[in-house]
Amino acid sequence: MEFEELVKNDYKIFVDTSSLMQKDSEYIFFKVIAPLLYKYQKKLIIPKSVLNEISKHNYNKHKDIEKANHVLDEMAKFELWGTNSKFDEQFADNAITSQFHSLRLKYNLCLITNDNSYKKDGNLSQDILDLKKSRSSEGIKDIRVFYIKDEKLFEFYDKNKHFKKGNTKFKKNIFKFKLPQNIHYQNDKQLNPNDIPIEGSLVIDNMGKSHKLLKQIGRTGGEGSVYLTNTNYICKIYKKEKVTLFRKEKIVKLIQNNIKITNVCLPEFIVYNKQKEFVGYLMAKAEGHEIKTSIFIPPLFKQKFSHWNRLHLAKVAFNILKKVEQLHSHNIILGDINPSNILIKNENNIFFIDTDSFQIEEYPCSVGMVAYTRKERHGKRYDEYLRNKNDDIFAVSVLIFQLMLPGKLPYSFSGGGSEKENMNPKNFPYKCYDGDGYNNAPDGQWVYIWSHLPKKLKLLFCRIFKKNEKISLQELIKEVKNYIYQLEKGFQSTDIFPLTHKQIDDKGNVLKDDFHELNCVVCGSNFAIPNKQVEKLKVKGWNLPTKCDICKKIPNPDLKKCNQCGKNFKDKINNLCKNCRGRDITCIGCYTTFRFTDGEKNFYDKKGLTYPKKCKKCRNDKSTPTPTYSNTSNSILGSLWGWLK
Amino acid sequence: MAQDLMILRQQDLVSNPTTRLPVCLCLDVSGSMHGEPIEELKKGVGYFFEAIKSDEIARYSVELSIVVFQSSVTTILDFANIDRQRIPSLTASGLTSMGAGVEQALNILEKRKTEYSSKGVDYYQPWMVLMTDGYSTDDTSNAIKMVARLGSNKKLTLFPVAIGDNADISILKQFSTMNQNAVLKVKSAQYFKDFFEWLSQSVAIVSQSVPGEKISAPNPREFNLEIEL
User: Fold this and answer.
1) A202-283 has which fold?
2) ipTM of the predicted structure?
3) Which of A33, A546, A571, B140, by CA, is between 20 and 30 Å from A609?
4) By a Cβ cutoff of 8 Å, what residues of chain A touch chain B?
5) Is B208 in Cβ contact with A296 (below 8 Å)?
6) Cβ of A370 and B211 within 8 Å?
7) Is this model's pTM higher than 0.90 or not?
């Protein structure tokens, strides 16, 4: 390939010390390279490590160093080179290889070096070209190496091409962060930049490219503001007091390892203000609606995804889980998984945003939400401990649960309190095949939805929420995948809000639409009862219900609560229900007092029975002799006797 | 009607699973508020409702009610879905039964919490805004005790707001659950809008936060409010 083509096509052209010190370097740089750079408005990249090396040679008065100085000085006058500040602090040695390693997914790269001798141990040219071959990351862009010889620029070709083929040296090798035990403890130093860019400002990324902040997106958050740039990136600019060493180090760590996951909007470039101070980062653009304000609020759900059914929800769940799995494969812990950090464009395109909060190695994720945090972590500050994959799995399980029962948290139950108080395994209100039924399940359609979920998925939810067990991401992915399969094949109902419990026929198949729809006489809304139940009622000659589940529970205004037993009853005068009202009678067997309630009295009247004289115990115990009374022997009992008759 | 409203209330709770923030405005509409103050207060309340409605999350999370006190106490707006609420008109006359007003407001907040709980809907601990321009004409000691007990258990956030310079700051301070028993002061009726803007922003922040988590509300001073310590 002609060198001009590379310049024209925006290859990032790096130069190392050896080429600058060649005997023909001045000729090549001034006559060949500089005109092309000028023509296409490009720059060479001279890594800082190279500049350091040159200054070392200057100090030692190396014989060829004047050439390098001359080239750099002259070209600097026309701004034809820049440094790549990206890894300034991280890579003193090996700078070029490391930089190529991480940049090869994003850019076409080129290196001008004369380090290509096979006699030496290291051969930079070959090392660089080998980077093109690693199978670890698909989508590596082009890498070219050139060298200077006899007033000409030659391309260096891969000498190992043939015998490296099929060599197992390049294994599939996913970059993994460390998973340290101990948190990064250090007083977080505020960097106090002089200037915080605002709408309209220019910022510079670590490749030296400038971006204009066009428009702020959304409100200014707790950490800073987010802008759309003229380069179609999204730029997060921190508030002044949030520009800290911790943030900078963490973002650098994320960027330098160049992890790319589709639709996970990871930081891609650091951005600096005019004074070259760290102020934020650039990331890819995300699209769609937050889960929180689309799926989790019913009116907004209908508005934003009106045609959706259960299959869409299951696919969203699956795609979220797959992304978490991918992040975990790099040992990135998401930390703050919540419905405001995930955007949904459609069921197959979901975006993870706010990724600068991810936990990377010893840098914790310092935010979180109670409802997505395991109970054993409650009471700790998020920035005081390192989370692990199980914390993420719990959080994502809550989110998947909320996708299945749109918006409902797993621990919300009837009689509960705040989110935090509710989060106790014993409060999980749904049926778990463990002998317990629905245990104070929240009112509404939630139990119907639960009954429609596949058993294996429910058991998984029960394990994590009710039994407080740890489950694996793969188990969850497998069950959600099975659910998708069942929905696609029509084995499960695709209604998001089913009207009845799941109906299953004798062969174990799920019956769909096997219910009788009714209108509630009170509120007019639709409700349904299964056909099976309709038949039962018909056989018994009973009427079909007239009120929906909600209206059934609304207390009748004619009813009042009994002061004693708390049951509702219908009576205008009394404050006690008929089972609590009554007269106390002394038992003629054991002389204890027992209550003969109005309810019992009605029963006795109806059956035409004589009222009891003995308490229940004595009545059951036939051996107690019935004493005979005379009006004179016991005046009190006697009078009572008389009254009872 | 009462029965219909009851049904709607239940349905809202059952079908919307969003964590709720009940807010009760406890307003002084005594004779001294007559004229410009009551008109501006009406506008302010109207503005507050609109601000909540325009926020996607607050709209489905914040629930509002209004209790007014004069010689007697009336719940002029009970909790419901904000889309169904119409703001009733306010008329100023009579005395200032602040103690009874606060007690009534606490009652309806407690009732709403019970409803949340029985339907299995999560909630944030309630907020009350107590606004007055004068001195209470009834006994406030019981109300203060109730508020203090709830406040110390973090079960209530009460913002006392003095309207103008003639309000009884010392009583309002006793009601306050804010830091250092602060009392907010709206200098005059024309600043009601600023206050309600501050309130709607604070409410929006809470409705997007985690229940129980410490929140940082916007600084009242940026909204032309004074803070009396």
Assistant:
1) Phosphorylase Kinase; domain 1 (3.30.200)
2) 0.84
3) A571
4) 222, 292-293, 296-300, 340, 368-371, 405-409, 412-420, 422, 429, 440-446, 522-523, 525, 550-551, 553-554, 557
5) no
6) yes
7) no
